[in-house]
Amino acid sequence: MKMMMKQSRKIMKMKNNNRLALFLLTGCVIFLGLSSCHVLNPYRSPVVDTTELYREVIASDSTSIADIPWRDFFSDPYLVRLIDTALVNNADLQIAVSSIRQADIELKRTRAAYFPNVSAGATVTHTATSDGNKAFSRSSNDVFAGISANWELDVWGKLNRQSRAQYARFLKSQAYKD
Prior knowledge:
single chain; alpha+beta
């Protein structure tokens, strides 16, 4: 009897030690997991003093020729038609506009990641055995309807960084057009 009591105490002590070890291991894993997450600081562009980059600053008129619409600048109707034709058939310009549209769609898709995603579906299945099989003549109907939703919290700024990167790509594609 005493022997059984000693064994049961040993077993209880081992169980308590195992629980303590599991508790400590879980605590260490959680601590390491949380401490390994690093939030990046937002990018700050450096301030550059450009006053000393140019020897002379020439005072000029504030109106630039680039501000005048090209249709007003050129008065020859034949030249205006030629420029219109060139702009319509310009493959580089079409590629640039397509690239801007694609970047705009990607930017909207990236920003949509901040919102919950909800999806729903339904299926109906009817199964029946053939008429020749009298032993197992049976039919069944299966109906399934489901809805699911998920949402990713931007705890460590991953979605924010993706959105900023996509916005930079969008600006790059617009600059390519110019």
